[in-house]
Amino acid sequence: MDHVRLMQVFVAVVEAQGFAPAARKLDLSPASVTRAVVSLEEALGVTLLVRTTRSMRLTEAGSRYFEESRSILQQIEDLNATVADANATPKGSITVTAPVLFGRIAVMPIIVSFLKMHAEVQVTAHFSDRNLNLIDENIDVAVRIGQLPDSGMRSRQVGHVRHVLCASPEYLSSRGTPAHPAELTVHDVVVAAAMSPRLDWRFGPSQQPIQVKVRPRIVVSSNDAAIVAVSSGFGMARLLSYQIADEVAAGRLKIILEDFEEPPLPVHILHRESINGSARVRAFIDHLAEALRRLPLILD
């Protein structure tokens, strides 16, 4: 076998967590898979896998070689796809992730419109308020809200959303509308742990922040539940502008303390670093970016 093929076999063994399952995946005999890994180790002069009759584990060198090999093989696959698909219709699978409500409200309609244009594309969408690791979860494209950490990923900013405080007209009528963040200490507060896990809420510009320690009457794990609570007339919640756009438009919620809002949060499309992306992923990113920028939910 050539060296690239040996790398492919080694990566398959690690990902399948065994020689026999890797052999089935690659349509090879278990003996061929074993010989390939041994040949690779001999060529490198290091032990990549420590194996017994019942288990196997990566050595330190093996762990590093696995990560680098997987990256190289992905780059080869992307390059081949770029050349092959340069003038072809996008086809194949794309895996996408986004925050739960943003995925439902904004991303899913865009996925549907893309699939209607490209009949040979399939999409798997993971909507989660946890930032999934693109490499570990094998995700092609992510939508992220907030400042991005330093990483080896490419990104494209498509706009901003606001971090707002809201309450129902019914609640504000009965309890009054606060004129300053300090007044929140005498109001009922609903905390969405997914959105504001800390109880020290910050307001105002980053140069002169105002910090208020809130005492929540309700703590919920999802933004949906917080919206239900405040829309029902109970307390105030801190959410993102797109999450309550429908409730605000319908008059069920009002945004308050707008003069004390923090700077808007950026919205990015994030994708894995590679020499060349596949035609289907490039086409989807372009479609997603253009569609998101047109949404009224997204600020310039």
From TrEMBL:
<dbReference type="InterPro" id="IPR000847">
    <property type="entry name" value="LysR_HTH_N"/>
</dbReference>
<protein>
    <submittedName>
        <fullName>Transcriptional regulator, LysR family</fullName>
    </submittedName>
</protein>
<dbReference type="InterPro" id="IPR005119">
    <property type="entry name" value="LysR_subst-bd"/>
</dbReference>
<dbReference type="Pfam" id="PF03466">
    <property type="entry name" value="LysR_substrate"/>
</dbReference>
<dbReference type="InterPro" id="IPR058163">
    <property type="entry name" value="LysR-type_TF_proteobact-type"/>
</dbReference>
<keyword id="KW-0804">Transcription</keyword>
<dbReference type="GO" id="GO:0006351">
    <property type="term" value="P:DNA-templated transcription"/>
</dbReference>
<keyword id="KW-0238">DNA-binding</keyword>
<dbReference type="GO" id="GO:0043565">
    <property type="term" value="F:sequence-specific DNA binding"/>
</dbReference>
<dbReference type="GO" id="GO:0003700">
    <property type="term" value="F:DNA-binding transcription factor activity"/>
</dbReference>
<dbReference type="InterPro" id="IPR036388">
    <property type="entry name" value="WH-like_DNA-bd_sf"/>
</dbReference>
<keyword id="KW-0805">Transcription regulation</keyword>
<dbReference type="Pfam" id="PF00126">
    <property type="entry name" value="HTH_1"/>
</dbReference>
<feature type="domain" description="HTH lysR-type">
    <location>
        <begin position="1"/>
        <end position="59"/>
    </location>
</feature>
<comment type="similarity">
    <text>Belongs to the LysR transcriptional regulatory family.</text>
</comment>
<dbReference type="InterPro" id="IPR036390">
    <property type="entry name" value="WH_DNA-bd_sf"/>
</dbReference>
